[in-house]
Amino acid sequence: MTEIQAREELARLARILREANTAYHGADAPVMTDADFDRLKRRNAEIEAAFPALKRADSPTNQIGAAPTDGFGKITHAVPMLSLGNVFDGADVFDFDARIRRYLGLGDEGIAYTAEPKIDGLGLSLRYEGGVLVHAATRGDGETGENVTENARTISDIPHQIDGAPDVLEVRGEVYMSHADFAALNTGIEATNRDRQQAGQRALPTFSNPRNAAAGSLRQLDATITRNRPLRFFAYAWGELSAPLAETQMQAVCRLAEFGFATNDLTTLCEGPEAMISQYRRIEDQRATLGYDIDGVVYKVDRLDFQTRLGFRATTPRWAVAHKFPAETAWTWLDAIDIQVGRTGALSPVARLAPVTVGGVVVSNATLHNEDYIAGRDSKGAEIRDGKDIRVGDRVQVYRAGDVIPKVADVDLSKRPAGALPYVFPEICPECGSAAVREEGDAVRYCTGGLICPAQAKENLRHFVSRKAFDIEGLGAKQVEMFFDDADLPIRQPADIFTLETRDAGNLARLKNRHGWGAQSAENLFAAIRERRQIALARLIFALGIRHVGEVAAKDLSLHYGDWNALVLAVDRARPAAQAHRAADEAEERERQAAAREDRRARIKETRDAAIAPLDVPHEAMEAWADLIGIDGIGATVGLSLSDALANEDERAAIDALVAHLDIQAPAAPAQASPVAGKTVVFTGKLEKMTRDEAKARAESLGAKVSGSVSKKTDILVAGPGAGSKAKKAAELGVVTIDEDAWLALIEGL
What is the pTM of this model? Predict the structure, then answer.
């Protein structure tokens, strides 16, 4: 896969997963199975791992669930309810075990795990104080869920009061519905509908599967409806605790059972990956006879002290993973091929299919990747699908497993209609009429319209108002589309959002008089916009949609610079060095190509030095550039993107216009006093008592900035055995250098 293909692939995956996530969590109306959704995320993660610089601002790997709906009150989880990473085969399970042992520094030492069925239901958190149930909340977006306390009290598996529990106990698990109860529920609805039909009343909808039935029942605004629905609950985890439940996962689950919660009797302790895979196969064999839906097996590190050390990534724990069951394929007819234009201008072909059920989900659209894929070849010109191209009218196989899902995987030439013509990929953007060019080596065509292309501008605005960015209530993707095309109150760039209320006040076509709006809804929108004038620095950086600057990079930049003006000034100062870096890269690539053509070795370093020298880069620029790309997690790719964005006159003007309306908040100070808060720390050499990831996570939790390189701004160098050039440079600059023991002593007890 080339970089261009990877970029386009990630754009498609982000769009498909965003739509599926909203349908599943927000509307209880999934457009794909859980297994297929997770496989989409796995494919996305694989591409991001291979091309880390291409990680999108709206990457699905950073998302959990969906925002709570407006019908319920909201509850903020004391401990976030995260999602799980996925594995799909035995090799993945062994890799998971190896990662755990490597992170903990255990070498070949074995480690125990629990294995339990992954229930296909709705996540629920129950908070008990003094043994009394005080509230219940859905997962929501992982940080904030819906208050469904009264509904949860109607579920017989959930005790209202428990004895012997810690003063604060958050029990977490899954609400589900058995197959028998689901069938009985739909039978009852069908019987009611016969009576309603005779009375001339509208029929009630039946549920498509037990998961939908459970989710819809728990999220009823009327708790009496929930009371009459046969919901069940399995407990398997916990959130906030005032005292530990046990020393191991298995013991803690047994403790939950002692409190009166239903726990799954298939939960088993496994000594290593072979035992985990064996238990997976045993559970898979029993899947059809369990009486409730599962979509995989969850593995968790058994020792809770190990879980604590392993900690969490942005959206998933390191110490747990879900081993998912496989998906399916189906055949259908290709009715049309449409072209969609993304935020970067990439032209993406989409198959419009005769609807077909694949793995229990109706599919009517599928990705076709790019023009080469349609033509039956890969990026290098080699044949795929035995060289069979894809044409409108073909009978095609839709594949929804570990690759891009759903996609057209194969063609049945025996069913091809007479007269079906090869598909001609457009060379003109269907949105703005600009030329769509495909540069040499690229697999994707890009619209050259830039700012005049409405598709690109709309996608940028959709990103700007997305949940992880400005998250303006009442201004979602549909509203962005409406305002973008509005003649009286247009929103064409982010700053327009914050002038909307003023423009509305002086406009004859007031928003409150529009169809679908009113005085209250208009005021609610204006109030939501006013509220978002105050924005965290990390959210602002992420919201700008600068290429390669995702949520994690935005947080890293925010913590390092702490102020918007400081970031802009640093990037502006570093620009001459950034330009020199790019010039050196381009010269290096030209020399490599020349070397390949002439069959000789290129003198790469000499070429790079020669390219930089004539530019006469100021020392201040080199320092600013080194500081920028030295931030741990930031590198030249992100640095160049920032420099390009702020150097582009149109883009800089749009950003400056936006910032003028905002009150940008600096990152919060660490929750506790720390001798390393605000200091820049570099780790080098081999750490013997913790892994590098653990050391970085611990330092950042104490308010330190972790850098990947030593400079005059470095406060502390933690040097383990094998420290080399960084230790030498630290000595030259007079940077305080300590060993691992001194570092641990410094932060001990914090």
Answer: 0.50
